[in-house]
Amino acid sequence: VLCGVAPDHPEVKNVINTFTQTARSERCAYYGNVTVGRDVTVAELRQAYHAVVLSYGAEDNRVLGIPGENLSGVYSAREFVGWYNGLPENRDLKPDLSCETALVLGHGNVALDIARILLSPLGLLRKTDITDGSLAALACSKVKRVWLVGRRGPLQVAFTIKELREMINLPGARPVLNPADFTGLENAIKDAPRPRKRLTELMIKTALEKPGEKTQAAAPREWGLKFQRSPQEVLPTADGRRARGVRMALTRLEGSGDSAKAIPTGDVEELECGLVLSSIGYRSLPLDPAVPFDTQRGVVPNSSGRVAGGPGRLYCSGWVKRGPTGVIITTMNDSFDTAQSVLEDLQAGVLDLSASREGFGAPPNRGQREGVRPVSFSDWEKIDAAEVARGKAAGKPREKIVDPQEMLRLIGH
Amino acid sequence: IFTNLSYSSADQVTVHFINRDGERLTATAKEGESLLEVVVNQNLAIDGFGACEGTLACSTCHLIFEKDAFQKLNAISDEELDMLDLAYGLTETSRLGCQVCVKKSMDGLTVRVPMDVSDIRRQLEVEKQSKQ
């Protein structure tokens, strides 16, 4: 929650309080800074515990797989979000924000988050828990135009209405939606479920609004949605080193609704830009040879959270179970579903409680294994308190510590 | 009990919550409190209710009203509709508890806590067990 939810969405992070209550329970123990695969294996965990639940999410991203993807100026949404959210592994990203136009490939909430952070007035960002380093970089940013580009049409957008409305209302940024993209859609959504209907109606309304109001027309920045465009190649500058644009294949849609497919028409278009953010989805990674993994779908195969084809007493929940989509409540409900499976198995004797298992203290004692320094929940609360104290001085909810070594020093490790 | 001493009984409004397992939870609310505040203040045993603490950033305080009661509620804002759109088991008489404030005229109100995916599963499991 702390490093995935956008810095300017503090209310969404309130759920941390609910999670903290659970974490503080006597019946719950937290061991951070322990890496499965390096410090402990799944086999050892299954030996030490009656049930093992994999909830490790999606730490990687899908790749475009197109030429020019590795040019300077091209980033995955995941690393860009990690950068402004203070994820230690992305702290040295140093994204180049010296161009005017940015392309975000993808039509999900993460794509909108990125557009919003790139175009938000600094005054608003300054009061959030965005990292100091990112704030400084954004203060020097020349980006004034962001296009969100998707392969399919308006009826297939994956972002939700709250985030779209927020973007439309963003001070100093004018929405640019092409009315031609929405012809005939009013009719198509007549009988659609309410969420899709309202979302589409909002896009249509925004597309048809004349920028007559003084504030809108004079907005220094702009953003827009482009549809039915599939990236073919990131085009390089003359010296061959940086991105200068993206060549897009224009597509047509086959089928409708969620299952509509984008088929290239043969026509192409070049979009000029100096910054490309690929927001086409997060991706889980396989954890351990002992755990089955569906490389194609990027999930651990399962049935209601019970790992399929695995060694038993193994479960999964969240993004590693169903794929990297949905908002917090979707993932929470999914976790309740896995918990239900664990409880059913407990009742049915599947977990074999007659076998006594030692948990964290099991030999070899993980706390004493060389080089392993587990971090407890109260250790985290010390780090948490330090971040909040540092933020206070700057009028921010917290100032995130981005160096893991600094965190460990703070708790005396 | 001590917190109620300073209020006359005229300010008390009785609200019933039908929990996901069918149990009826009865609470005494103060006029002006939101239904989320009632659940929190009275410590009602409704799992995962109000995760975002009333800031319109989730849909976990989703409640289902009877038609008559629903029609008498305060107008629903776009922002509330936006979050309700993401709620599981959305109905025509659904509202978010954090946006509905208790009025004296609501005395005796009954609302239902909607079931989520794991509740439906649990129900099916119980039915299966009872058939065996």
Characterization of this structure:
The complex is a heterodimer of chains A (413) and B (132). Helices cover 31% and strands 18% of the residues of chain A. Chain A is α/β, with parallel strands linked by helices and 413 residues long. In chain A, helix 4 (109-119) runs parallel beside helix 7 (161-168) and helix 7 runs parallel beside helix 9 (194-208). Chain A starts with 14 loop residues before the first helix and ends with a helix. The mean pLDDT of chain A is 94. Chain B has a single domain (13-130), classed as Roll (Ubiquitin-like (UB roll)). In chain B, a hairpin with a 5-residue loop joins strand 1 (12-18) and strand 2. The relative contact order of chain B is 0.21. With 132 residues, chain B is an alpha+beta fold.
Overall pLDDT confidence of chain B: 89
**Secondary-structure element pattern of chain A, one letter each:** HHEEEHEHHHEHEHHHEEEEEEEEEHHHH
Query: What is the CATH topology assignment of chain B?
Result: Ubiquitin-like (UB roll)
Q: What is the name of the CATH class of chain B?
A: Alpha Beta
**Spatial strand sequence of the major β-sheet of chain B:** 2-1-5-3-4
Radius of gyration of chain A: 23 Å
Strand content of chain A: 15-25%
What sequence of helices (H) and strands (E) makes up the elements of chain B?
EEHEHHEEH
Q: Summarize the main sheet of chain B.
A: 5 strands, mixed
- Helical content band of chain B: 25-40%
Percentage of residues in DSSP E strands of chain B: 15-25%
Report low-confidence residues of chain B grouped into runs of 5 or more: none
Give me the CATH superfamily of chain B. Answer: Beta-grasp domain
Task: Report the principal-axis shape of chain A.
Answer: globular
Q: How many distinct domains of chain B?
A: 1
Would you identify the CATH H-level superfamily of the largest domain in chain A? FAD/NAD(P)-binding domain
- Tally of helical segments of chain B: 4
Helix content of chain A: 25-40%
Main location (chain A): mitochondrion
Cofactor (chain A): FAD
Catalytic activity (chain A): 2 reduced [adrenodoxin] + NADP(+) + H(+) = 2 oxidized [adrenodoxin] + NADPH
EC number (chain A): 1.18.1.6
